TrEMBL record:
Membrane topology according to the record: Single-pass type II membrane protein
Record-given protein name: Beta-1,4-galactosyltransferase
Cellular component per GO, a single term: Golgi membrane
Catalytic activity: N-acetyl-D-glucosamine + UDP-alpha-D-galactose = beta-D-galactosyl-(1->4)-N-acetyl-D-glucosamine + UDP + H(+)
Pathway it works in: Protein modification; protein glycosylation
The protein's required cofactors: Mn(2+)
Intracellular or extracellular location(s): Golgi apparatus membrane
Originating species: Anabarilius grahami (Kanglang fish)
Molecular functions (GO terms): metal ion binding; N-acetyllactosamine synthase activity
First-level EC class: transferase
Transmembrane regions listed in the UniProt entry: 6-25
């Protein structure tokens, strides 16, 4: 009887030691499971916004409520070097029923032509955003919905230029540069694809000491830079930088090639490419089918191989186009131009521009 009791006692002690060891080994995992369990029932903090991939995302319009009342221009101080309205990661969705009238209603301080100035301080930076597109009004609506409050949070003085054209993206950006600079002495120009939405307002839309590639981390590339010399999506240059590389090429008709040509021009102009961090330079692409009429350019690789020899004779110093219309919409300036075809610009009675 005594021997049987001893065996049971040793068995119980042995099991007890095993349980203690198991508890110590699994303590961290246990704490994580308990923490997860309580988070399920915890009331969310509305000030933190949405959490995606461990990053708290806010509504892009949330911080605009912090804008102070307008002040007299004589008493207006300069805006702080770091805007207090910047909130970091932004929650991006694409509501199917969004209308331009709703975007206009949510941006009451934006004036005709898509212009904005901070109401209570003098902006330190003046940025023009140029958006070339072809039959992408649906995408433009979403970009304007996010871009206006995004820029206002950064306390910029800005203007947005867009239009619907025969598609030659790089040549259209040359046109946008010239027409924007005709209207105002902008100190920075952002060249922006219509289907890319910025996801973090710490990615400031101001120029750097070198040409800036802002869209360094797109969701379609797994939020990574696809290759070192990539300069596509969203880029920014000062007027001096733009002219130093002779602007963008005029002869890339259709899809592809011009981004790499531009990246090469930056190098040939004796400049480097500036980029934000992968955490900040994030963009979400609006999913879409390939544009009809914007077919792949089969000559792009041969053209790219010749950039070193052609860049000084093909760019801002040779761009030709005809203004068709300039329409000052409530949220942007719409400039429609005739940039001709691959065969050249066909003369008409309309005004002709040439550098």
């Amino acid at each position: 009887m005594y021997t049987l009791q001893s065996k049971w006692r040793y068995l119980i002690m042995f099991l007890g030691v095993q349980l203690v060891v198991m508890a110590l080994l699994s303590r961290e995992g246990y704490q994580k499971r308990v923490s997860y369990f309580f988070r399920i029932f915890r009331k969310p903090d509305s000030t933190m916004g949405h959490s995606v991939g461990g990053r708290n995302h806010t509504d892009v319009y949330a911080n605009l409520s912090l804008l102070g009342p307008p002040v007299n221009k004589e008493d207006m101080p300069y805006c702080p070097k770091q805007s207090p309205l910047i909130g970091g990661p932004i929650h991006v969705t694409f509501p199917s029923r969004l209308k331009l009238a709703e975007v206009e209603r949510k941006n009451p301080l934006v004036v005709r032509g898509g212009r904005y100035r901070p109401p209570n301080c003098e902006a330190r930076h003046r940025t023009a955003v140029i958006i070339p597109h072809r039959n992408r009004e649906h995408h433009l609506k979403f970009l304007l919905y996010y871009l206006h409050p995004f820029l206002q949070r950064q306390q910029l003085s800005y203007g947005i230029y867009a239009g619907n054209y025969t598609f030659n993206r790089a040549k259209l950006m040359n046109v946008g540069f010239r027409e924007a600079m005709r209207e105002e002495d902008w100190d920075c120009l952002f060249f922006h694809d219509v289907d890319l939405i910025p996801e973090d307002d710490r990615n400031t839309y101001v120029c750097d000491a070198h040409p800036k590639h802002a869209a360094i981390a797109m969701d379609k590339f797994g939020y990574k830079l696809p290759y070192k010399m990539y300069f596509g999506g969203v880029s920014a240059l000062t007027p001096v930088q733009y002219l130093k590389m002779n602007g963008f090429p005029n002869n890339y008709w259709g899809w592809g090639g011009e981004d790499d040509d531009i990246g090469v021009r930056v190098s040939l102009g004796g400049m480097l490419i500036s980029r934000p961090s992968l955490k900040v330079g994030r963009y979400k692409m609006i999913k879409h089918k390939h544009d009809k009429g914007n077919e792949e350019n089969p000559k792009r690789f041969n053209m790219l191989a010749k950039t070193r020899h052609t860049w000084k004779n093909d760019g801002m110093n040779t761009v030709e186009y005809e203004i068709v219309s300039r329409d000052y919409q409530p949220l942007y300036t719409n400039i429609t131009v005739n940039i001709g075809t691959e065969a050249g610009l066909h003369p008409t009675k309309k005004k002709r521009h040439k550098s």
